[in-house]
Amino acid sequence: MAILGVIADDFTGATDIAGMLVKNGMRTIQTIGVPAKGTIPDDVDAVVVALKTRSIPAKEAVSQSLDALKALQAAGCVRFFFKYCSTFDSTDAGNIGPVGDALLDALKAKRAIYCPAFPENNRTIFFGHLFVGDVLLSDSHMRHHPLTPMTDASLVRVLARQTKHKVGLTPLKQVQAGSASLRAALDKLASDGVRHVVVDAVADTDLGIIGEAIGDDVLVTGGSGVALGLPAAYRRRGLLTHKAGADALPKVAGAAAVLAGSCSAATLGQIAAFKGAHLALDTDAICRGEDVAAAALAWAKGKLGNGPILLSASDKPEAVKALQAKYGIEKSSHAIEKTMAALARGLVEAGVGRMVVAGGETSGAVVGALDVTALRIGPEIDPGVPWTASVAKKPMLLALKSGNFGAPDFFTKAFERL
Protein backbone atom coordinates (compact mmCIF):
# COMPACT_ATOMS: atom_id res chain seq x y z
CA MET A 1 0.00 0.00 0.00
CA ALA A 2 1.20 3.51 -0.82
CA ILE A 3 2.76 5.48 2.02
CA LEU A 4 3.52 8.79 0.25
CA GLY A 5 0.90 10.92 -1.46
CA VAL A 6 2.06 13.79 -3.69
CA ILE A 7 -0.12 16.68 -4.84
CA ALA A 8 1.49 18.34 -7.88
CA ASP A 9 0.34 21.64 -9.36
CA ASP A 10 0.96 20.64 -13.00
CA PHE A 11 1.40 17.55 -15.15
CA THR A 12 5.09 17.68 -15.97
CA GLY A 13 5.92 18.63 -12.40
CA ALA A 14 4.08 15.52 -11.28
CA THR A 15 6.11 13.35 -13.64
CA ASP A 16 9.28 15.08 -12.46
CA ILE A 17 8.84 14.11 -8.81
CA ALA A 18 7.45 10.69 -9.69
CA GLY A 19 10.64 10.00 -11.61
CA MET A 20 12.74 11.11 -8.65
CA LEU A 21 10.90 8.72 -6.34
CA VAL A 22 11.26 5.80 -8.77
CA LYS A 23 14.98 6.50 -9.21
CA ASN A 24 15.34 6.15 -5.46
CA GLY A 25 13.45 2.88 -5.27
CA MET A 26 9.80 3.80 -4.72
CA ARG A 27 7.35 2.13 -7.09
CA THR A 28 5.21 5.03 -8.22
CA ILE A 29 2.00 5.69 -10.12
CA GLN A 30 0.89 9.10 -11.35
CA THR A 31 -2.81 9.86 -11.71
CA ILE A 32 -4.21 12.52 -14.01
CA GLY A 33 -6.47 14.44 -11.69
CA VAL A 34 -7.92 13.17 -8.41
CA PRO A 35 -8.12 9.35 -8.50
CA ALA A 36 -11.44 7.62 -7.96
CA LYS A 37 -11.82 5.48 -4.87
CA GLY A 38 -10.39 1.99 -5.26
CA THR A 39 -8.34 2.75 -8.39
CA ILE A 40 -4.88 2.85 -6.78
CA PRO A 41 -3.00 -0.47 -7.17
CA ASP A 42 -1.72 -2.15 -4.01
CA ASP A 43 1.78 -2.68 -5.44
CA VAL A 44 2.90 0.97 -5.35
CA ASP A 45 4.76 2.91 -2.68
CA ALA A 46 3.83 6.41 -3.84
CA VAL A 47 0.92 8.06 -5.63
CA VAL A 48 1.42 11.37 -7.43
CA VAL A 49 -1.75 13.29 -8.26
CA ALA A 50 -1.25 15.59 -11.23
CA LEU A 51 -3.45 18.66 -11.00
CA LYS A 52 -3.55 21.79 -13.13
CA THR A 53 -3.64 24.37 -10.34
CA ARG A 54 -0.54 26.49 -10.85
CA SER A 55 -2.23 29.43 -12.57
CA ILE A 56 -5.92 29.11 -11.68
CA PRO A 57 -7.62 31.25 -8.97
CA ALA A 58 -6.27 30.42 -5.51
CA LYS A 59 -9.66 29.35 -4.15
CA GLU A 60 -10.01 26.74 -6.91
CA ALA A 61 -6.44 25.54 -6.39
CA VAL A 62 -7.11 25.03 -2.68
CA SER A 63 -10.34 23.13 -3.32
CA GLN A 64 -8.76 20.75 -5.84
CA SER A 65 -5.71 20.19 -3.63
CA LEU A 66 -7.88 19.29 -0.64
CA ASP A 67 -9.86 16.85 -2.80
CA ALA A 68 -6.58 15.23 -3.80
CA LEU A 69 -5.50 15.03 -0.15
CA LYS A 70 -8.70 13.21 0.80
CA ALA A 71 -8.21 10.70 -2.03
CA LEU A 72 -4.61 10.05 -0.99
CA GLN A 73 -5.62 9.58 2.64
CA ALA A 74 -8.27 7.10 1.51
CA ALA A 75 -5.54 5.21 -0.40
CA GLY A 76 -3.63 4.75 2.87
CA CYS A 77 -0.93 7.42 2.51
CA VAL A 78 0.61 8.65 5.78
CA ARG A 79 3.08 11.22 4.40
CA PHE A 80 2.20 14.02 1.97
CA PHE A 81 4.10 16.27 -0.41
CA PHE A 82 2.94 19.44 -2.17
CA LYS A 83 4.98 19.71 -5.38
CA TYR A 84 5.49 22.96 -7.31
CA CYS A 85 8.04 24.11 -9.86
CA SER A 86 11.75 24.42 -9.11
CA THR A 87 11.44 28.06 -10.18
CA PHE A 88 8.64 28.62 -7.59
CA ASP A 89 6.20 29.68 -10.34
CA SER A 90 3.47 31.73 -8.68
CA THR A 91 2.03 35.22 -8.29
CA ASP A 92 1.49 37.44 -5.25
CA ALA A 93 -2.01 35.96 -4.96
CA GLY A 94 -0.72 32.38 -4.81
CA ASN A 95 -1.05 29.57 -5.32
CA ILE A 96 1.80 28.11 -3.28
CA GLY A 97 1.05 29.89 -0.01
CA PRO A 98 -2.73 29.38 0.00
CA VAL A 99 -2.46 25.67 -0.86
CA GLY A 100 0.28 25.18 1.73
CA ASP A 101 -1.88 26.81 4.39
CA ALA A 102 -4.92 24.70 3.47
CA LEU A 103 -2.98 21.43 3.57
CA LEU A 104 -1.38 22.32 6.91
CA ASP A 105 -4.83 23.06 8.34
CA ALA A 106 -6.31 19.83 6.99
CA LEU A 107 -3.44 17.74 8.37
CA LYS A 108 -3.33 19.67 11.67
CA ALA A 109 0.40 20.26 11.14
CA LYS A 110 2.30 23.17 12.68
CA ARG A 111 4.70 23.97 9.83
CA ALA A 112 6.12 22.87 6.50
CA ILE A 113 9.37 23.47 4.68
CA TYR A 114 9.58 25.11 1.24
CA CYS A 115 12.51 23.93 -0.84
CA PRO A 116 12.35 24.07 -4.66
CA ALA A 117 16.11 23.45 -4.98
CA PHE A 118 17.20 20.98 -7.69
CA PRO A 119 21.01 21.31 -7.96
CA GLU A 120 21.28 18.76 -10.78
CA ASN A 121 19.12 21.09 -12.88
CA ASN A 122 20.95 24.21 -11.64
CA ARG A 123 18.28 25.35 -9.18
CA THR A 124 19.84 26.31 -5.84
CA ILE A 125 18.81 28.34 -2.79
CA PHE A 126 21.23 30.49 -0.81
CA PHE A 127 20.07 32.77 2.03
CA GLY A 128 16.54 32.18 0.79
CA HIS A 129 17.31 33.43 -2.71
CA LEU A 130 16.63 31.12 -5.64
CA PHE A 131 19.28 30.89 -8.34
CA VAL A 132 18.85 29.53 -11.87
CA GLY A 133 22.37 28.57 -12.83
CA ASP A 134 24.59 31.45 -11.79
CA VAL A 135 21.91 34.17 -11.89
CA LEU A 136 19.12 35.11 -9.52
CA LEU A 137 15.65 33.87 -10.43
CA SER A 138 14.63 37.49 -11.03
CA ASP A 139 17.38 37.86 -13.64
CA SER A 140 16.61 34.59 -15.42
CA HIS A 141 14.25 33.84 -18.31
CA MET A 142 11.49 33.35 -15.70
CA ARG A 143 11.29 37.12 -15.32
CA HIS A 144 9.41 37.14 -18.62
CA HIS A 145 7.11 34.15 -18.03
CA PRO A 146 3.70 35.01 -19.61
CA LEU A 147 1.61 33.63 -16.71
CA THR A 148 3.85 33.68 -13.62
CA PRO A 149 6.62 36.25 -14.11
CA MET A 150 9.16 35.79 -11.30
CA THR A 151 10.64 39.21 -10.55
CA ASP A 152 11.74 38.58 -6.95
CA ALA A 153 14.40 35.97 -6.12
CA SER A 154 13.74 36.04 -2.36
CA LEU A 155 11.46 33.10 -1.66
CA VAL A 156 10.83 34.41 1.85
CA ARG A 157 9.43 37.65 0.40
CA VAL A 158 7.48 35.88 -2.34
CA LEU A 159 5.89 33.46 0.12
CA ALA A 160 5.18 36.21 2.67
CA ARG A 161 3.00 37.95 0.08
CA GLN A 162 0.93 34.77 -0.31
CA THR A 163 0.12 33.99 3.33
CA LYS A 164 -0.88 35.75 6.54
CA HIS A 165 1.33 33.41 8.58
CA LYS A 166 4.98 33.83 9.54
CA VAL A 167 7.64 32.85 7.00
CA GLY A 168 11.16 31.94 8.13
CA LEU A 169 14.45 30.66 6.77
CA THR A 170 17.00 28.00 7.64
CA PRO A 171 20.24 29.12 5.94
CA LEU A 172 22.77 26.81 4.33
CA LYS A 173 25.05 26.85 7.38
CA GLN A 174 22.23 25.41 9.47
CA VAL A 175 21.48 22.71 6.88
CA GLN A 176 25.12 21.66 6.61
CA ALA A 177 25.38 21.32 10.38
CA GLY A 178 23.54 18.01 9.93
CA SER A 179 20.03 16.56 10.02
CA ALA A 180 19.70 16.55 13.83
CA SER A 181 20.73 20.20 14.05
CA LEU A 182 18.41 21.12 11.17
CA ARG A 183 15.52 19.28 12.75
CA ALA A 184 16.07 21.15 16.01
CA ALA A 185 16.15 24.47 14.16
CA LEU A 186 12.91 23.66 12.34
CA ASP A 187 11.23 22.66 15.60
CA LYS A 188 12.38 25.91 17.23
CA LEU A 189 10.90 27.95 14.39
CA ALA A 190 7.61 26.07 14.72
CA SER A 191 7.52 26.77 18.47
CA ASP A 192 8.01 30.46 17.65
CA GLY A 193 4.94 30.40 15.41
CA VAL A 194 6.77 30.26 12.08
CA ARG A 195 4.51 28.19 9.84
CA HIS A 196 6.41 28.30 6.54
CA VAL A 197 10.17 27.73 6.39
CA VAL A 198 12.30 28.26 3.30
CA VAL A 199 15.31 25.91 3.42
CA ASP A 200 18.61 26.55 1.63
CA ALA A 201 20.24 23.86 -0.52
CA VAL A 202 23.04 24.05 -3.09
CA ALA A 203 24.01 20.37 -3.52
CA ASP A 204 22.48 16.89 -3.44
CA THR A 205 24.19 16.27 -0.10
CA ASP A 206 22.13 19.12 1.34
CA LEU A 207 18.95 17.49 0.03
CA GLY A 208 19.94 14.22 1.75
CA ILE A 209 20.37 16.05 5.05
CA ILE A 210 17.03 17.79 4.60
CA GLY A 211 15.28 14.51 3.75
CA GLU A 212 16.45 12.88 6.98
CA ALA A 213 15.53 15.97 9.01
CA ILE A 214 11.94 16.02 7.71
CA GLY A 215 11.37 12.25 7.55
CA ASP A 216 8.76 12.48 10.31
CA ASP A 217 6.96 15.51 8.83
CA VAL A 218 3.42 14.78 7.71
CA LEU A 219 3.67 17.51 5.03
CA VAL A 220 6.63 18.56 2.90
CA THR A 221 6.53 21.12 0.09
CA GLY A 222 9.03 21.82 -2.64
CA GLY A 223 10.37 20.86 -6.02
CA SER A 224 11.27 17.29 -6.90
CA GLY A 225 14.85 17.74 -5.67
CA VAL A 226 13.93 17.68 -2.00
CA ALA A 227 12.23 14.31 -2.55
CA LEU A 228 15.68 12.85 -3.26
CA GLY A 229 16.32 12.19 0.43
CA LEU A 230 12.86 11.04 1.45
CA PRO A 231 12.89 7.34 0.38
CA ALA A 232 16.02 6.65 2.45
CA ALA A 233 14.53 8.51 5.39
CA TYR A 234 11.34 6.44 5.14
CA ARG A 235 13.35 3.20 5.01
CA ARG A 236 15.23 4.15 8.16
CA ARG A 237 11.88 4.66 9.87
CA GLY A 238 10.52 1.29 8.71
CA LEU A 239 7.87 2.83 6.47
CA LEU A 240 9.42 1.51 3.25
CA THR A 241 11.28 -1.63 2.21
CA HIS A 242 13.63 -1.88 -0.74
CA LYS A 243 12.27 -3.51 -3.91
CA ALA A 244 14.10 -4.05 -7.20
CA GLY A 245 12.75 -2.97 -10.59
CA ALA A 246 10.89 0.12 -9.46
CA ASP A 247 11.26 1.64 -12.96
CA ALA A 248 10.14 -1.38 -15.02
CA LEU A 249 7.76 -0.56 -17.91
CA PRO A 250 6.04 -2.74 -20.52
CA LYS A 251 7.54 -2.92 -24.00
CA VAL A 252 5.51 -0.88 -26.49
CA ALA A 253 5.85 -0.88 -30.27
CA GLY A 254 4.83 1.91 -32.63
CA ALA A 255 6.14 5.03 -34.30
CA ALA A 256 7.83 7.88 -32.40
CA ALA A 257 6.77 11.53 -32.24
CA VAL A 258 7.42 14.73 -30.31
CA LEU A 259 4.83 17.42 -29.57
CA ALA A 260 6.34 20.68 -28.29
CA GLY A 261 4.23 23.52 -26.96
CA SER A 262 6.57 25.06 -24.40
CA CYS A 263 8.20 28.39 -25.22
CA SER A 264 10.98 28.03 -22.65
CA ALA A 265 14.59 28.60 -23.63
CA ALA A 266 15.42 24.94 -22.99
CA THR A 267 12.67 23.64 -25.28
CA LEU A 268 13.54 26.12 -28.01
CA GLY A 269 17.12 24.86 -27.86
CA GLN A 270 15.94 21.25 -28.07
CA ILE A 271 13.85 22.04 -31.13
CA ALA A 272 16.83 23.71 -32.79
CA ALA A 273 19.02 20.68 -32.04
CA PHE A 274 16.52 18.11 -33.35
CA LYS A 275 17.83 16.41 -36.50
CA GLY A 276 14.68 14.59 -37.64
CA ALA A 277 11.65 15.75 -39.62
CA HIS A 278 10.18 18.90 -38.04
CA LEU A 279 7.02 20.88 -38.74
CA ALA A 280 6.62 24.28 -37.06
CA LEU A 281 2.90 24.97 -36.68
CA ASP A 282 1.42 28.31 -37.71
CA THR A 283 0.16 29.55 -34.35
CA ASP A 284 -1.44 32.65 -35.85
CA ALA A 285 -3.50 30.45 -38.14
CA ILE A 286 -4.42 28.28 -35.15
CA CYS A 287 -5.68 31.33 -33.26
CA ARG A 288 -7.64 32.47 -36.34
CA GLY A 289 -9.54 29.20 -36.13
CA GLU A 290 -8.01 27.41 -39.12
CA ASP A 291 -7.74 23.60 -39.06
CA VAL A 292 -3.97 23.48 -38.78
CA ALA A 293 -4.12 20.02 -37.17
CA ALA A 294 -5.52 18.33 -40.29
CA ALA A 295 -2.71 19.56 -42.52
CA ALA A 296 -0.10 18.76 -39.87
CA LEU A 297 -1.38 15.19 -39.51
CA ALA A 298 -1.28 14.70 -43.26
CA TRP A 299 2.38 15.78 -43.18
CA ALA A 300 3.10 13.53 -40.19
CA LYS A 301 1.59 10.40 -41.72
CA GLY A 302 4.04 10.65 -44.59
CA LYS A 303 6.99 10.76 -42.18
CA LEU A 304 6.10 8.17 -39.53
CA GLY A 305 8.27 5.09 -39.37
CA ASN A 306 11.42 6.87 -40.54
CA GLY A 307 12.58 7.92 -37.09
CA PRO A 308 11.07 10.37 -34.59
CA ILE A 309 9.17 13.38 -35.98
CA LEU A 310 8.59 16.74 -34.28
CA LEU A 311 5.59 19.06 -34.43
CA SER A 312 6.03 22.31 -32.52
CA ALA A 313 3.92 25.31 -31.54
CA SER A 314 6.82 26.84 -29.59
CA ASP A 315 8.15 30.34 -30.23
CA LYS A 316 10.27 33.07 -28.71
CA PRO A 317 8.79 35.10 -25.80
CA GLU A 318 8.31 38.25 -27.87
CA ALA A 319 6.34 36.32 -30.50
CA VAL A 320 4.18 34.73 -27.81
CA LYS A 321 3.44 38.14 -26.29
CA ALA A 322 2.50 39.52 -29.70
CA LEU A 323 0.12 36.60 -30.27
CA GLN A 324 -1.44 37.07 -26.83
CA ALA A 325 -1.86 40.80 -27.43
CA LYS A 326 -3.58 40.09 -30.75
CA TYR A 327 -5.95 37.33 -29.63
CA GLY A 328 -5.88 37.41 -25.83
CA ILE A 329 -4.00 35.12 -23.46
CA GLU A 330 -6.89 32.75 -22.76
CA LYS A 331 -8.09 32.46 -26.36
CA SER A 332 -4.63 31.90 -27.83
CA SER A 333 -3.63 29.37 -25.17
CA HIS A 334 -6.88 27.44 -25.53
CA ALA A 335 -6.63 27.34 -29.32
CA ILE A 336 -3.08 25.99 -29.26
CA GLU A 337 -3.86 23.40 -26.57
CA LYS A 338 -6.90 22.25 -28.57
CA THR A 339 -4.73 21.82 -31.66
CA MET A 340 -2.08 19.87 -29.75
CA ALA A 341 -4.80 17.61 -28.34
CA ALA A 342 -6.12 16.92 -31.85
CA LEU A 343 -2.60 16.16 -33.03
CA ALA A 344 -2.04 13.71 -30.18
CA ARG A 345 -5.24 11.80 -31.01
CA GLY A 346 -4.42 11.76 -34.71
CA LEU A 347 -0.85 10.59 -34.19
CA VAL A 348 -1.93 7.69 -31.97
CA GLU A 349 -4.56 6.68 -34.53
CA ALA A 350 -1.80 6.73 -37.16
CA GLY A 351 0.32 4.30 -35.16
CA VAL A 352 2.40 6.36 -32.74
CA GLY A 353 3.11 4.33 -29.60
CA ARG A 354 5.94 6.41 -28.11
CA MET A 355 5.53 10.15 -27.62
CA VAL A 356 7.54 12.95 -26.01
CA VAL A 357 5.54 16.03 -24.98
CA ALA A 358 7.27 19.30 -24.06
CA GLY A 359 5.48 21.78 -21.80
CA GLY A 360 3.14 21.49 -18.84
CA GLU A 361 0.05 22.94 -20.54
CA THR A 362 0.69 20.87 -23.65
CA SER A 363 1.16 17.71 -21.57
CA GLY A 364 -2.15 18.35 -19.83
CA ALA A 365 -3.91 18.76 -23.17
CA VAL A 366 -2.34 15.58 -24.57
CA VAL A 367 -3.14 13.25 -21.67
CA GLY A 368 -6.67 14.62 -21.60
CA ALA A 369 -7.12 14.01 -25.31
CA LEU A 370 -5.80 10.46 -24.99
CA ASP A 371 -8.01 9.70 -21.96
CA VAL A 372 -4.98 8.82 -19.86
CA THR A 373 -6.00 8.53 -16.22
CA ALA A 374 -2.81 7.07 -14.72
CA LEU A 375 0.86 6.47 -15.58
CA ARG A 376 3.43 3.95 -14.41
CA ILE A 377 6.74 5.75 -13.92
CA GLY A 378 9.82 4.30 -15.62
CA PRO A 379 13.49 5.10 -16.26
CA GLU A 380 14.88 8.63 -16.26
CA ILE A 381 15.87 10.29 -19.55
CA ASP A 382 17.33 13.49 -18.10
CA PRO A 383 17.09 14.85 -14.55
CA GLY A 384 13.42 15.36 -13.75
CA VAL A 385 12.05 13.62 -16.86
CA PRO A 386 11.28 9.86 -16.92
CA TRP A 387 9.53 7.67 -19.45
CA THR A 388 6.06 6.57 -18.36
CA ALA A 389 3.50 4.02 -19.54
CA SER A 390 -0.21 4.71 -19.59
CA VAL A 391 -2.21 2.36 -17.39
CA ALA A 392 -4.53 0.78 -19.97
CA LYS A 393 -5.25 -2.45 -21.83
CA LYS A 394 -3.13 -1.12 -24.68
CA PRO A 395 -0.47 1.06 -23.01
CA MET A 396 1.59 3.69 -24.76
CA LEU A 397 4.85 5.27 -23.67
CA LEU A 398 4.86 8.97 -22.80
CA ALA A 399 7.63 11.34 -21.69
CA LEU A 400 6.02 14.49 -20.29
CA LYS A 401 8.74 17.11 -20.10
CA SER A 402 8.67 20.39 -18.22
CA GLY A 403 9.55 23.14 -20.66
CA ASN A 404 12.64 24.14 -18.68
CA PHE A 405 14.12 20.63 -18.37
CA GLY A 406 16.36 18.44 -20.48
CA ALA A 407 19.66 18.70 -22.35
CA PRO A 408 19.77 20.12 -25.91
CA ASP A 409 19.69 16.60 -27.40
CA PHE A 410 16.74 15.52 -25.24
CA PHE A 411 14.32 14.69 -28.07
CA THR A 412 16.77 12.31 -29.74
CA LYS A 413 18.14 10.87 -26.51
CA ALA A 414 14.67 10.07 -25.18
CA PHE A 415 14.01 7.45 -27.87
CA GLU A 416 17.53 6.07 -27.67
CA ARG A 417 16.91 5.51 -23.93
CA LEU A 418 14.19 3.00 -24.84
Describe the structure.
The chain is α/β, with parallel strands linked by helices. The protein has two domains: about 230 residues, Putative sugar-binding, N-terminal domain (Rossmann fold), CATH 3.40.50; about 160 residues, Molybdenum Cofactor Biosythetic Enzyme, Chain A (3-Layer(aba) Sandwich). It is built from 15 helices and 18 strands. It has a 15-stranded mixed sheet, sandwiched between helices. Strand 7 and strand 8 form a beta hairpin. Helix 7 packs parallel to helix 8, helix 11 runs parallel beside helix 13 and helix 13 packs across helix 14. The radius of gyration is 21 Å and the shape is globular. About 55% of the residues are buried. The model has no long low-confidence stretch (mean pLDDT about 95).
Q: What is the topological layout?
A:
Elements: E1 4-8, H1 11-23, E2 28-32, E3 46-50, H2 58-74, E4 79-83, H3 96-107, E5 112-115, E6 123-126, E7 129-132, E8 135-136, H4 155-160, E9 166-170, H5 172-175, H6 179-191, E10 194-199, H7 204-213, E11 219-222, H8 230-236, E12 255-260, H9 265-273, E13 277-280, H10 283-287, H11 292-301, E14 309-312, H12 317-327, H13 329-349, E15 352-358, H14 360-369, E16 374-382, E17 385-390, E18 397-401, H15 410-417
Parallel strand pairs: 1-3, 1-4, 2-3, 4-11, 5-10, 5-11, 9-10, 12-14, 12-15, 13-14, 15-18
Antiparallel strand pairs: 2-16, 6-7, 7-8, 16-17, 17-18
What brief labels describe this structure?
alpha/beta, Molybdenum Cofactor Biosythetic Enzyme, Chain A, 15 helices, 15-stranded mixed beta sheet, 418 residues, Rossmann fold
